[in-house]
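Internal tracking record. Fields below are filled automatically when a chain is submitted to the structure queue. Please do not edit lines marked as system-generated. If the sequence contains nonstandard residues, flag them in the REMARKS field before resubmitting.
Queue: standard
Priority: normal
Entity type: single polypeptide chain
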Amino acid sequence: MIDIYETEFRKTDLNLLVVFAALMRERSVTRAAHALRLSQGAVSASLGRLRTAFGDELFTRTRTGVEPTPRAVELARRVEPALALIHGAVTDGDRFDPRTARRTFTLGMSDDLEAALLPRLLAATAALPGVRIAVRQAHRNALAGMLDRGEVDLGIAAAPAHGPEHRGTPLFTSGYTCLFNPRLLPLPTPLSLDDYLAHPHLLVSYDGRRGIVDDVLEARGLDRRVTASTTHFAGAALHLAAVPALATVPRHAAAVYADALGLAVSEPPLPMPRYTVGALWHATRTDDPAHGWLRALVEETARHPGPDDLPPPATTTGGARNHPAADR
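SYSTEM-GENERATED OUTPUT FOLLOWS
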């Protein structure tokens, strides 16, 4: 058996797999070359050898970089965990010292969670010069695939969809808050139901058609007037600076937006569901000391928020109908 492995290894330069992992992560030959401290030509040449070795295009060109083929996505599921194990073996991976380490940790989360958590994460790592936090936009249904492909180290979302190869932990519970510009809508707070229904709304939605607020209103035989929609909570909050409208956003981000933009905050005038935000990672990363440090950092950040803008941590993950992602 050992002879077979040695024979196979002689056929392939294992350094090519490092280039493959960088291309999966960066989605760009130029950025991968920068991350690996190689020339762009060297990475292009390695990609050519990878294509020959695996008999597949692996990455196709796009206007913004490269995109993996289905074959590359499947390879990444097996290559990324193997590289993590090899990395730990050759770097004394049973220890991780964030004070001396040089490491970029990539988190996948939506913009409302980024607004609530990233400033605290940056503050917590300010004294660690070699630690960098990167964020990629993600939603609950995309996280599992991003983890499988090695695009993110840790995902954070409300009730994230996942499979048996993933692990997770609850971080905190959240709910819904209304935002509006008091200079354009001089309304008393807390908002009355009449005021809530009388004024236009900005909807945050993936499809631009409907959000959880509409479900709650419909169950009561009510309706609201939505004048515009966006896919980002921060975008909706920014628009309120110039638009006399209401937006219903996650409670954990509302105070951040309100403080930055001078918006008024009010509890919704009707009962709204709460949901649990949790962290998700690939099972192969569980015993990685660096990843364990990252998880502990995120949990600590979520456990010790600023005043009133982030709910206390949850003790359970809740049911399947946890209404993740607020007004989406």
